[in-house]
Amino acid sequence: MAYLCYFRGLRLVSPSTATVVMFTVPVFGVTCSVVLLGESFTALQAVGAAVMLVGALLAVTQGRLPARSATARPVRAPEGGPSTGRRTRSSARP
Question: How far apart are CA 85 and CA 66, in angstroms?
């Protein structure tokens, strides 16, 4: 029953969301088995989990990581003053 619901849900979401889910399922499965069942967790499994999560990140960002900005730069008005696209009284036609 769980598999039927799982695959039905995958059909209802976008391909990028389905890809992320497919990449993260093994990571959550291992995490749950370690926490709930007391299974062992080795360094090799940690490397595998990292590879899977990086794969999910690359799938979401399509291989392009977002640019970091240290501070937000203020937007400057063009020469001649601010332009809002609206006419003022002095520029309005009679």
Answer: 31
- pLDDT single digits (tens) 6-61: 888 888 988 878 878 888 888 888 999 999 999 999 999 999 989 988 888 887 77
pTM for the predicted model, two decimal places: 0.52
* CA distance linking residue 47 with residue 28, whole number of Å: 14
Question: What residue type is 80 in one-letter code?
Answer: G
Q: Rounded CA gap, 22 and 25, in Å?
A: 6
Indicate the SS3 state at residue 52.
Answer: helix
51: tokens are 């590879």
Number of C-beta neighbours around residue 34 at 10 A: 13
